[in-house]
Design brief:
It is a single chain. Helix content is 23%, strand content 46%. The chain has 137 residues and is an alpha+beta fold. The protein is globular, with a radius of gyration of 16 Å.
Amino acid sequence: MSCVSALIVVRLEAATDHVLLLARLSYDGEDPYAVQAEFFDGPDVLARWHFDRQMLAEGLRRPVGEGDVGFSPYTDAGADELRIDLRGPSTEPEGNATLFVDTRVLTCFLEQTFAVIGMGEEFLDLDTLLDELLARG
């Protein structure tokens, strides 16, 4: 299996302005349904999230998601972006974040992941997974 990663700039919506953050998107064919996102402030990881790859791709075309994560297309000053709404475990608004990612950058990353494992070609060997889990117990 193969891995793909990309460092990208995301905009974090703040109360009065936007803050630019660096993010690393990663895809590993061993976990074919997930895209991992790490958000950085300098050398420090602010947060790690796992996104459903298909939902991320669909969010480029239409609003998707409920609960912790939501994706929707967004246009600002003529630039096409993906809006990502993240809701933390708390009911307080401080646990929530809204991010914006350039659509072209995200589309390029997703195309690379589909070159590793195509949409609909994902496979998870549950028998092997269960054997590994039971062996740990």
